Every structure is written in C-alpha cells, then in structure tokens.
Amino acid sequence: MAEAAAVVAESLAGYRARAARAVLEQVVLPGEELLLPGQEDGEGPGSAGERPLRLNAGARSGGRVVCGPGLRRCGDRLLVTKCGRLRHKEPGSGNGGGVYWVDSQQKRYVPVKGDHVIGIVTAKSGDIFKVDVGGSEPASLSYLSFEGATKRNRPNVQVGDLIYGQFVVANKDMEPEMVCIDSCGRANGMGVIGQDGLLFKVTLGLIRRLLAPDCEILQEVGKLYPLEIVFGMNGRIWVKAKTIQQTLILANILEACEHMTADQRKQIFSRLAES
Amino acid sequence: MQRGLDSETKKQLEEEEKKIISEEHWYLDLPELKEKESFIIEEQSFLLCEDLLYGRMSFRGFNPEVEKLMLQMNAKNKAEEVEEETVELDVSDEEMARRYETLVGTIGKKFAKKRDRANYEEDENGDIKPVKTKKMFLKPQD
C-alpha cells in the first residue's frame, strides 16, 4: 500500500497520465488520467510533459472501449472520478476493447438503468406507486407494470410492501421509474416480496461481492439451513428462514462479512454448523 | 394569344422559388469542426462489468419457485442453453396420443349427422371405437 501511495503521489505531482494497463488492480484516485493501450507509445518515464496524442486509427487496438462506473471520458483518455481499484474485463466475443471500471466502496445508491433493486412502497397516488429505493427521489411504479395486470385486474400492493423490480428510466435529469416485468412481459421473480423476513442495509460493494459467480460466502450460507435471500443492488438484502432466530443469525452473518477475513468466516460457520 | 405559361418559363419560375426557399433556410456560418471519432463509451451500470448472479436465491428447498428461477436465470447469463436439456413434459407423449385419438372421435360425433352417430359406438371402457366403413349401395351383378 505504501508503494502504491508513493507512485500515485509522484504521478499526481508530475501531472503525467499513466497507462491503464499498468495500473490494473491498483488503487487509483480521482483526478488521474489513464491512457488506453495504443496511446502509451513513448510515454516512458523519460519524457517530460505531455506528448500530443495520436488520433489515427492505426494506433488504436481493437474497437470500442467501455468505461464503466468510476471513470469518465476525457478526450481520448479515461478520467478517474472515484477512488478504488481499477479493474478490467476482456471482451468475451472479441469485439470491443473490453471494460474498465473502478471498484469503489459506497453506501449511497444512485439509480442506474437495468439494476434490480428492493424498494419499499411509500405512497399510492392514483395509478402510480411511489417506491423508496434509497436514492435521492422515490421511484415511480405504475400499477400496470406487474405480470398479468390490467386496468380491471389491479395488483395487490399496499403501502409498506417490499417490491423487487428493475429500473427502466434512471438518469440525473428525471425521476427514476421502475417496473416489475421484463421486456417480454414476464415477471421473472420480480414483484411483491412475500410476508415475514427481514430487510437490512449493507454497502454496495458487499452486494456485488456476494453476487459474484464464485462467492464462497453464499455457498457456505446455503449449507446451514433452508432459507431465502433477495439481493437488491441498492444495498438492501431481504432474508427469510424458518424461525426468527435463524433469520437474525443470517442477517448478522451477512452484515459482518464485510469486515471479516476468510479464516474468521470459516470459524464462525464451523461454530454455527456445530450448534 | 398564349394562355398559361410555357413549360420552360414554368421551370424557371420553380427554380427561382426553390432558390428563394433554400436561401431563407438558416445555417451556421462556422468552419466545419472535425468530428473526433470517440471509441470510448460511458456506462454507469455494473451489469456490463461483472457477471452478477440473479438477485433472488433460495437454498435447501425453502422456496421451490425461486430455485427454479435461479436455474433459469443463471443459465441464461452463462449462455448454457447450448446444452438444451430435455424439457420435462407434464403429459407424456403416449398419453397425449391416446387422448388425441379419443378426442377426434368425440368432436367428430358432434358434427356427424344422426345416421352417422350410430357408427360411433362406445367400447366397454368408454373409448370411442373407430368409425366403421359406411355401407354403400352395391349394384347387383347381373
């Protein structure tokens, strides 16, 4: 960590842009500029000041590059806007130059189109429900956006219900809108979440870690006892088990997973499995 | 005396009209800016970056519908549909064929005339026997 900090300080002091490839999996700070592959030629430590970038197509490698959360486009470079580790994903099907993003940590959710979130119905006004998703504004949910809902056949949604849905409109200029059906009109598990259970809040980074394809925490949790979990990308998790005690244990484990190392986790799970 | 306009004068008039109209159109008198072809796309969603699993999960049979959904949605994400497992049928093929066979009889009975209904006799089991061949008039052989 001290090494990384020293390098970063040097780079910021010299206002030199670094190559994105060289910084992968390292901590980046807001304000840094990153060069994409194909633009780093001649940008060695010996060159003083900024070199004019070459814009010809030959210098570019591959096609389009996607800059994900935490990065912005600044001319032909990437500008870092959040602090965290820089990550990269190679393109699967071969087109495009891959995705770069910053793996940052935050608790405040900003609505993003396509995200599946858990919302709490706060008001019912006419044909729309107002759903609190943890953002700056409550999202609006029309009563027709449920599977099998028609003007005569209204969905059974009350104030205070939990809703699992996805955003169709989510930008900084408009009120977010969410729906509980997909583009084909099927529910796919979205809609009102059932009775009982417990809703609690965690950081956004933990949700993404838990939803990663190779998450050990979930595999171990699943072996404990029958349970049901719903993850919302807005940092909310809803859990339900057969007894209240089991539900509370589960909630505590998931909240504590944020700060535990793998060994501590294994200890706790083994203790639980015994009891 | 020539009434009306010549085709040539007509054309000239039309051209003049067009000219006036196109001159009235506003345009920016700026030098053409070179469009920089940007090959960087900005996305704010984590869905593109990381392959995340489906958000609803159920373990050890707590909610069977959610478990079915989990298989469905995660398989879609990983594009495992190439394997194409055999779809579980609610009704087997043989039973379907049997029902269809009897169904043809019952529906056919509805549209048959009174005389033909006599052909639709019922078996001991209640299954409709296949329609007997109609007795046609046989010409006497001489």
UniProtKB/TrEMBL annotation, chain A:
InterPro entries reported for this sequence: Exosome_RNA_bind1/RRP40/RRP4, KH_dom_type_1, KH_dom_type_1_sf, NA-bd_OB-fold, RRP40_KH-I, RRP40_N, Rrp40_S1
A single BP term in Gene Ontology: isotype switching
Pfam families linked to this entry: KH_6, RRP40_N_mamm, RRP40_S1
Subcellular location: Cytoplasm; Nucleus, Nucleolus
Keywords linked to the UniProt accession: Acetylation, Cytoplasm, Exosome, Isopeptide bond, Nucleus, RNA-binding, rRNA processing, Ubl conjugation
All copies of domain K Homology, residue ranges: 197-244
Record region (Disordered): 35-55
Annotated CDD domains: KH-I_Rrp40 (cd22526), S1_Rrp40 (cd05790)
Gene3D superfamilies: 2.40.50.100, K Homology domain, type 1, Nucleic acid-binding proteins
A Gene Ontology molecular function term of the record: RNA binding
Annotated Exosome complex component RRP40 N-terminal domain residues: 26-105
Domain of life: Eukaryota
Main location: cytoplasm
One annotated Gene Ontology cellular component of this protein: cytosol
Subunit structure: Component of the RNA exosome core complex (Exo-9), composed of EXOSC1, EXOSC2, EXOSC3, EXOSC4, EXOSC5, EXOSC6, EXOSC7, EXOSC8 and EXOSC9; within the complex interacts with EXOSC5 and EXOSC9. The catalytically inactive RNA exosome core complex (Exo-9) associates with the catalytic subunit EXOSC10/RRP6. Exo-9 may associate with DIS3 to form the nucleolar exosome complex, or DIS3L to form the cytoplasmic exosome complex. Exo-9 is formed by a hexameric base ring consisting of the heterodimers EXOSC4-EXOSC9, EXOSC5-EXOSC8 and EXOSC6-EXOSC7, and a cap ring consisting of EXOSC1, EXOSC2 and EXOSC3.
Similarity field: Belongs to the RRP40 family.
Protein's name according to its UniProt entry: Exosome complex component RRP40
Gene designation per UniProt: EXOSC3
From TrEMBL, chain B:
PANTHER family: M-PHASE PHOSPHOPROTEIN 6
Gene: MPHOSPH6
GO terms of biological process kind: maturation of 5.8S rRNA
UniProt-listed InterPro entries: MPP6
Name of the molecule in the record: M-phase phosphoprotein 6 isoform X2
Protein source organism: Delphinapterus leucas (Beluga whale)
Name of a matching Pfam family: MPP6
